[in-house]
Amino acid sequence: MQTFHSIDDLQQITEPLHLALGVFDGVHVGHQKVISSAVLAAEKSGGVAGVLTFSPHPIQVLAPDRAPKRILASIAHKGFLVEELGCKLMLVQQFDQAFASQSAYNFIASIAKACPHLQSISVGEDWQFGKGREGNVQSLEKWGSELGFTLLAASPVIGQGERVSSTRIRQAIRDGNLPAIHEMLGRPYTVLGIVLEGRKLARQLGFPTANVKVYNEQLPPDGVWAVEVKVEDTWYPGVGNLGKRPTVENDASAQRLLEVHLFDFEGDLYGKELPVRFSRYIRPEKKFESIDALKAQIEIDVRQVQRGE
User: Fold this and answer.
1) Alpha-carbon distance 67 to 237, whole Å?
2) pTM for this structure?
3) Which residue in 7, 24, 94, 189 has the fewest CB atoms around it within 10 Å?
4) Given phi > 0 = left and psi -120 to 50 = alpha, else beta, which region is 28?
5) What angle do CA 58, 175, 157 make, to 5 degrees?
6) CA angle at residue 35 from 70 to 43, to 5 degrees?
C-alpha cells in the first residue's frame, strides 16, 4: 500500500480514485462501512480505493483538554487495518491550526484539483469538517456536482442499542470487556508496538519474552493475557504480561510494559514492529515473594494458555 503525506501527492494516481475521508481512530465497524463503500466502488469501476486521514487526531489540536490520552490505532497500525480492507493508498494529512482554519470547500477543492481522476468520496453521513465544521453531507453533494465526484454516505452502525463509537470502545478496553470490543471492532483487539531490548530477566527464568513498546494506543487492564502475535505473515500463540512487574522492579520507578512469550517460535524480534492480539484474560498481575515463586506461576500460566483455559 502506498502512503502519502500531502494532498498534492494524489497527482501520482492515474486510475479512478475512490477516497474515504475521516479520522478512523480504531477503524471500527462504523469506519469499515465507510471505507468498504470506497473499496466496493473501486471494484465496480476498476479504479483504486484509498483513505485520507489526519495526524494528530484533530481533537488534540482543536480541544486538547478533551483529547483522550491514548488512541485506538496509531498511523502505522491504521495503515495495516485499512490495507486489510482493500485500500491501495493512505494519505496522512498533517492536522494543525493552519490546516484547521481553511474552509471545507477549499479542502475538498484541493483534493479534486490534485486528483483529476477522483471518482467518489465516502464519508459517514453525519461527518462534519472544515473551519467551523461547515462541511457536511449536503455540502459534499453540492460540491460533487461542481467538482465531478460522487458522494457515498454511510449511516452509523448501531450495537447494543447505541451507536458504535471510539469513545465506547475505549471504555470497553479499559474494562477488559473483550466480547464488546470484538463486536464494535469487528475483530479481536490488537495493539501495535516495536520490540525493544530488555534486561533479559524472563530469559533467565526459562521463558524468553519480547518487550513490546506499544505506540500510544489504549491498553486493557494489567495482568496476564493469552495473546497472539503476528510475525511476518504468521500469528503465533503465546502468553503476555502487561504491567509493572512488581516482583522484579521497583514499584516507584517501574514503567508499564507489555512482555510476550511466544510458543513454538525461535528467532530475533528486536526492532520488529509487531501486532499483539489480546485473546483472553488469565489473571491479575501480582507481586510474588521470590523469583522461584514467580517462575512457578509463569509455568502454570503457560500451561493454562496452551490448554486453552
Assistant:
1) 34
2) 0.89
3) 94
4) beta
5) 55
6) 150
